[in-house]
Amino acid sequence: MFSSYFEVDGIEISSSAIDLAKEWDLKTNFIQESVLEFRTSKRYDGIYCYDLLHLFLLKDRKKLIQNCVMHLKEQGVMYFTCFSDRDFNNGVGRNVEEGTYEYKKGKYAHFFTEENLIKHFNDLNILETGSIREYLTHAEKQQEYELRYIVVQKIG
């Protein structure tokens, strides 16, 4: 959707995910790299980070946000979605940090309260927060998720 209107770089660690994405979007420049380690001199007007932030422990969530801010132009805007503490999966698995559960060996899910989400972005101008319900269909079974979102702007 974005590449129809903007020059887009897509950062993804999985080569198979990139191959799949290329079937749908020929205009995006895909870069195979970890979002935690991504480095470029390029600065972006906007960063869209969908359903990723909640997959990390606190240290790496902070690292991801810092890396995004580093790659954002002044006055640039970022949009993040993440799991909400209202999601029915909240609490599933072994508790490893406050609000974070290991639901499979080495796989984590953090469930954000609105206050916790805002705290992660407290050095930025928060433009909007909210929540959305998402429905995904896998193998003809529909799954429902409760997500939070935040829109922030980099200031001086």
UniProtKB/TrEMBL annotation:
Q: Name one GO molecular function term.
A: methyltransferase activity
Pfam families, alphabetized: Methyltransf_25
Spans through the membrane: none
Q: Where is the Methyltransferase domain?
A: 6-76
| The keyword Methyltransferase is assigned to this record | yes
Respond yes or no to whether keyword Transferase is given for this record: yes
**Sorted UniProt keywords:** Methyltransferase, Transferase
Q: Name one GO biological process term.
A: methylation
Q: What is this protein called?
A: 2-polyprenyl-3-methyl-5-hydroxy-6-metoxy-1, 4-benzoquinol methylase
What organism does the record attribute this protein to?
Paenibacillus brasilensis
Q: What is the lineage of its organism?
A: Bacteria, Bacillati, Bacillota, Bacilli, Bacillales
